[in-house]
Amino acid sequence: MRPMLATRGDRLPTSPEWLHEVKWDGIRLLVDSTPERGLRLWSRNENDVTAGYPELAGFGAGRDLLVDAEVVAFRDGIPTFAALAERMHVRNQRRLEVLARDNPVTLLVFDVLRLDGRDLTGLPLEERREILEGLELADVHWQVPAAYDDGEMLMQATEQQGLEGVVSKRRSSRYEYGARSRHWLKFPHRRRTSWVVGGWRPETGSRGRLGAVLVGLPSADGLVFMGRVGSGIAGRNGQALLELLAPLARTTTPFVAGMPKVDAVGSHWVEPSIVVDVESLGFSGQGRLRQPAFIGVRHDLAPDDLVEDPAEEDAE
DNA sequence: TGCGGCCGTTCAGCGGTACA
DNA sequence: TGTACCGCTGAACGGCCGCA
């Protein structure tokens, strides 16, 4: 039993047939509560993660209920994946108790799929939403976030508040387990920035094909490592980039000391002269690019152009 | 020809194990 | 005992292939 997935959208729908929700930066869960078995939390890949979130134990209060939700961890009032990452794989009971107290999660419930033995997945989203709001699920550790009619307003507001983006859903959509539906569209706020390539790594299982490029920010001492970029460089994109990098090969790293060993081992180094655009969801807790995707080479920029403040660099 | 599903790639972090 | 490595979990994206 896997949750229904959204397709990435290219244009925010403005028709009244759609409603819009905040795209939360967390982990998707199906939350199954029954009087017989109690509460079970299932991840997107059907793993039982109940033990990882003890503060959610009271959800459902023993009622027969199946909901679709996102578990998030707030830092400074904003859902932050880095904070949630500290919780994701902890199973040590004592450590879980400490984390549940110091770094608690919140369950954001946005759909109800079963209630008191009745399967609701065949109902339109609008009706499921009414039933969900009627349940009055509100607690320190769980809530039902609002849905909005005005998607553009929500898009602007989420960007200003540093939230991840917007999900638009067709009001008439039925719930399809495991399906990536075009009735649900996601619009993440991905930030485009420019970085200098200092190396590359071959694709796993091949020698010549590009698997990822290592990017950094120029400084007086060399490149400051910012992460590896693997998405978006498959196929012709990767081949073209590799042809640009090949003549720039060098035997020593252009990155300053402190680069993680796991990133350095097996990498090929190049003169830091190629600037590329990368889209990402910002930075991880360790200052690395989060979910970076290669966009293209910036032939109009040189590394010196990035010295001021690359975060302000915008490709538009 | 277009769409959907699957697969392979990247990222981050934790836990267990091996080794110095 | 501390460190390094591997394998697992979560996330997203792009390419390929089959089917309508």
Automatic annotation (TrEMBL):
<dbReference type="GO" id="GO:0006281">
    <property type="term" value="P:DNA repair"/>
</dbReference>
<feature type="domain" description="ATP-dependent DNA ligase family profile">
    <location>
        <begin position="98"/>
        <end position="238"/>
    </location>
</feature>
<dbReference type="InterPro" id="IPR014146">
    <property type="entry name" value="LigD_ligase_dom"/>
</dbReference>
<keyword id="KW-0436">Ligase</keyword>
<dbReference type="GO" id="GO:0003910">
    <property type="term" value="F:DNA ligase (ATP) activity"/>
</dbReference>
<dbReference type="Pfam" id="PF01068">
    <property type="entry name" value="DNA_ligase_A_M"/>
</dbReference>
<comment type="similarity">
    <text>Belongs to the ATP-dependent DNA ligase family.</text>
</comment>
<protein>
    <recommendedName>
        <fullName>DNA ligase (ATP)</fullName>
        <ecNumber>6.5.1.1</ecNumber>
    </recommendedName>
</protein>
<dbReference type="Pfam" id="PF04679">
    <property type="entry name" value="DNA_ligase_A_C"/>
</dbReference>
<dbReference type="InterPro" id="IPR050191">
    <property type="entry name" value="ATP-dep_DNA_ligase"/>
</dbReference>
<dbReference type="InterPro" id="IPR012309">
    <property type="entry name" value="DNA_ligase_ATP-dep_C"/>
</dbReference>
<dbReference type="GO" id="GO:0005524">
    <property type="term" value="F:ATP binding"/>
</dbReference>
<dbReference type="InterPro" id="IPR012310">
    <property type="entry name" value="DNA_ligase_ATP-dep_cent"/>
</dbReference>
<dbReference type="GO" id="GO:0006310">
    <property type="term" value="P:DNA recombination"/>
</dbReference>
<dbReference type="InterPro" id="IPR012340">
    <property type="entry name" value="NA-bd_OB-fold"/>
</dbReference>
